[in-house]
Input
Amino acid sequence: MIKVGIIGATGYAGAEIVRLLMGHKDAEIVWYGSRSFIDKKYSDVYRNMFEIVEDKCLDDNMEELASKVDVIFTATPQGLCASLVNEDILKKVKIIDLSADFRLKDVSVYEEWYKIEHKAPQFIDEAVYGLCEINRDKIKDARIVANPGCYTTCSILTAYPLVKEGLIDPNTLIVDALSGVSGAGRGAKIANLYCEVNESAKPYGVANHRHTPEIEEQLGYAAGEEIRINFTPHLAPMNRGILATEYATLVKKDGKLPTAAEVRAAYDKYYKNEKFVRVLPDGEYPETRWVETSNYVDIGFKIDERTGRIIMMGALDNLVKGAAGQAVQNMNILFGLKESEGLEIVPCFP
Amino acid sequence: MIKVGIIGATGYAGAEIVRLLMGHKDAEIVWYGSRSFIDKKYSDVYRNMFEIVEDKCLDDNMEELASKVDVIFTATPQGLCASLVNEDILKKVKIIDLSADFRLKDVSVYEEWYKIEHKAPQFIDEAVYGLCEINRDKIKDARIVANPGCYTTCSILTAYPLVKEGLIDPNTLIVDALSGVSGAGRGAKIANLYCEVNESAKPYGVANHRHTPEIEEQLGYAAGEEIRINFTPHLAPMNRGILATEYATLVKKDGKLPTAAEVRAAYDKYYKNEKFVRVLPDGEYPETRWVETSNYVDIGFKIDERTGRIIMMGALDNLVKGAAGQAVQNMNILFGLKESEGLEIVPCFP
Amino acid sequence: MIKVGIIGATGYAGAEIVRLLMGHKDAEIVWYGSRSFIDKKYSDVYRNMFEIVEDKCLDDNMEELASKVDVIFTATPQGLCASLVNEDILKKVKIIDLSADFRLKDVSVYEEWYKIEHKAPQFIDEAVYGLCEINRDKIKDARIVANPGCYTTCSILTAYPLVKEGLIDPNTLIVDALSGVSGAGRGAKIANLYCEVNESAKPYGVANHRHTPEIEEQLGYAAGEEIRINFTPHLAPMNRGILATEYATLVKKDGKLPTAAEVRAAYDKYYKNEKFVRVLPDGEYPETRWVETSNYVDIGFKIDERTGRIIMMGALDNLVKGAAGQAVQNMNILFGLKESEGLEIVPCFP
Amino acid sequence: MIKVGIIGATGYAGAEIVRLLMGHKDAEIVWYGSRSFIDKKYSDVYRNMFEIVEDKCLDDNMEELASKVDVIFTATPQGLCASLVNEDILKKVKIIDLSADFRLKDVSVYEEWYKIEHKAPQFIDEAVYGLCEINRDKIKDARIVANPGCYTTCSILTAYPLVKEGLIDPNTLIVDALSGVSGAGRGAKIANLYCEVNESAKPYGVANHRHTPEIEEQLGYAAGEEIRINFTPHLAPMNRGILATEYATLVKKDGKLPTAAEVRAAYDKYYKNEKFVRVLPDGEYPETRWVETSNYVDIGFKIDERTGRIIMMGALDNLVKGAAGQAVQNMNILFGLKESEGLEIVPCFP
Output
């Protein structure tokens, strides 16, 4: 039985790790870290856990934690994980960091987009970007897994095969995405009050959202070159879900656009055996309702011959495949468990 | 492995049975009945089931079905189950009927409230009202289980111990309840369009909703007398959830109202060992978000000494404990399985 | 042109006064008081007012304000209005207080339910309870109008004629009500975050909500005696709207229940000429969507002969008739304007 | 007083015309056409109109109607207006058509995208595209005004000045938009049920939505050449609102990108004096909540120097500026009334 500690167990992502691990047969949570609620029963913070979780919340002491658990999930604001981790800790325990601290390989890019100093740059190199379907082999032996962002998981998986196979020009890529409100976290902010968000949609972080360089770096690896894209997130009035609609110019071969069959073949090449990636039939597009509460990513596409562009669309649950689910998937890979253990959840509808 | 057939597999309740049984290790669905979608792939109707369910929808042939399965769930409009069932079928197969056909013992009450003739009154007597926590022992040997309504499960379980123990006057009982929209089913009606329901709340079926006699009959058994109550359902803009707020006059003993401790003791007497009934701490009241997607019923109460009344409150997920979850729980009882098999779902929040 | 000052202009109720007065031809706002946003442009706080309101927010100085305006609306937390008002101010200006400070005639009841000391009890007697349809004549000459609460306006107007005419026993009255989330105000609290409220319904303030004594006092006047009722508010996931479902035992005459026609006659007696009270046809019940953004109260009722009770139902928009709209209606009465000026808004649907 | 007839008065757009005209001092509705509800009271279909509209619904007889009114609004499915209109009618009455029948100048484009034969191509030439801010002068003398679509009004107004001034390359334009559900109309379809739409977002009509050629035609006039764009609509779980996020490559001058000031100057050139177009301050982006129930279009933009693209964003209320409001604005222009009469509605929030 793998012993799990969570730092930041009372945020939405942390709470989703708890939900998922309650159904995981090889892992048990032994540390519910939450600086805001130390000594409070976890189920007093999340009443859904009443009579399910009996533990109290504990402090965020990573040193102590490292000696008690096999893996630590950090579901905390940017900067915290980097400020706590050290070589001693990494000798004892695996870390799956849900923040952005170890996602970007270039520390100057991190510091420019996040506006904070990186406190543990010495570990950036060894950290593995935990996009399971792409980096599975490297994740196995990592000490630090940088769990990808919600928008990025969706954006990258949706475009990856076409970038990798050279079917689209990656520098024409435009990612227009929307998210449910749980992505904004559980902080008490006026902007996230029910009446402010309900019955409205809005763009935010236009041309400067922090997931931009993450998408660029990862798709850049696929393209074999540095790329620049546009990414615009929007907030939509729903609890969960990321929907990414992506545009790119198709690369012609012998003066002809790729066919739908060729595009599908590219997707199949990478995802045919991936349990959690579902490429929809032609003419079907993803909807967030069909993946809710589950670890699936649904993908669809449409070629527009009039403009020579392809529209690629992906949907996932931001708290599952976009955060806690992928984190558990990474844990399963790290410990040699069945990769889908604890994640075989049928999407709940309606 | 228990073989399951579902008649009405493409309504919301039927689809929820499918979702739950996907996670049940001792049952497999071999018949997805849906007259509206015969020969269509089930996952073309419910895209969340893509790459999970590969079966096509079949007709509603109960005779044929009876020879192929161990248990039939009928998640269909009132009248259908009664019109199909017969002695031959019942010799071969257990029936768990999610409609109202076998819930009321008095056929004239059924015909008065439902405005249809009952086609199989000969089976009413033997049918067992499938409120698991109350009728567990009778359910075990039943051939027909009448799965309770969503409002009724919530309303009865919330008041049952106090009625049974004589702490409240059952004829003063007023049940004011609200439901999410999935309770209205998947029919294409203007009244259930998004824009008609969203941002609004309304009462309906005032003083004539069909769940009224069901509550009266069951609580009447607990009271040991016929009772008359008021029940008012409301529609609230959310997908799932029943919240029942119930008022009754407390019965004084020696001129004194029962104490909160006495009320709690009554709840404990019946629910202390019930996994799916959670009586909340004093001062805490149920909220539908804390039970969503799960089989739990949460209950709270408050004594108002100023008026001598008690306010009892219950919450459940109408599609789970209020329909499909309880149906699966009944199946588990019928077949001697662990009662919570397939139902150990942690409520999903947010 | 009546000069208006608002203290608390950046809360939801204050902002609704602004919205309504933008369409009022005899009033202009000259003071947008908001301690939290002093010197900030009002339209930077509420972007809907961009290019409509050019003013900046000012402090809450009631003395200074009194010399500049004809009427002050206080849309502030309990206690503030009472702490600011004095005889000098009242000699210069009318006050319409949207808080509870002057609603209850018995200061000890106020202090018991609100848990604060009343700072200006000397003005309680002269303050007029601003329920326009009932107290119109007294409001005309008032210096302080105590604008009723949202739940109370709905609860009282729905039951008033039947209490007044002796058709129901007022001590059997149970008010079960629900509110949209804007009633909780614009404070940054976790409990009111989108994801906490969305897809959920909950009771709160059970048996101790502060609107209880307000309903009791006003309906007590109608009954000609002190009464005790039950009132349970609920939160529903929508921006606006109050729906009150009220139960009471009908008073028999000569052993017979009142008829629907008699009940309707009672409603007609008080509301036939009331523009903002709409008593719906038999068999029709109010829904919050039909009054949204408007000053209407819709009322319906149903007699249940089985139990001898009547179910009365009322719906209004909590920010309009439940707060700002009624406040403007009171202003119109105070200044001898057409009572519906600025309020002839057709409910906006969907 | 202008006499108004509405054909299709019981759809959402028709009902919004009714709401707006109730507050219009120079127009009165004398014909509520609704084939589905002939002889039914209008307020029985829309209960918000109870005690406000006393008329019954009438048939869709355009000939008879033409002799009774000054202007006819057709808020009906594509094809109906074209099938009814003729020279006799046009000699008597102005027509403002909210369908697509007269929006596209090239009848073959209409027939290709709408898959129906055009029944009155002889009137296409004289019909004026009723985008008020752009075509005001031509609208004045029109007999048929083709009221623009909701997505198109938003998409065109957001990009128009930059296309017209040559600041962007129009063939790089990508419009990614989302709409509230009222845009889907009031038909009883499963896809628009509350539970199907709530808590989900989806793309639809990808690369083949009918508003595409309408945007291309109008922006093509501005560009002075035929253009091809991508347009992807999405459905979001809210009643009202269109949000368009538009991407285009900026045209360099002397090797330099236009500055934000130059872009703003272009917007100001066309919209400085437009009451209903609000260009937001730098760094502010439109949100649908700020325009709800009103006739405003809010616009914001952001230059991304990294990619050389500009992101332009627009928001409006699909039923007001996107349909009924613009129709009333067109009526005001046609009859020489104050253009904002009946439309000076402050956006209602929350």
Summary: Chain D has two domains: 2-126, 151-318. The interface with chain A takes residues 171, 174, 176, 178, 180, 195-196, 198-204, 206-207, 228-230, 232, 234, 236-241, 243, 245, 247, 285-289, 292, 302-304, 306-307, 309, 311, 313, 350 of chain D (CB under 8 Å). Chain D has a mean pLDDT of 97. The domain at 151-318 of chain D is CATH 3.30.360.10 (Dihydrodipicolinate Reductase; domain 2).
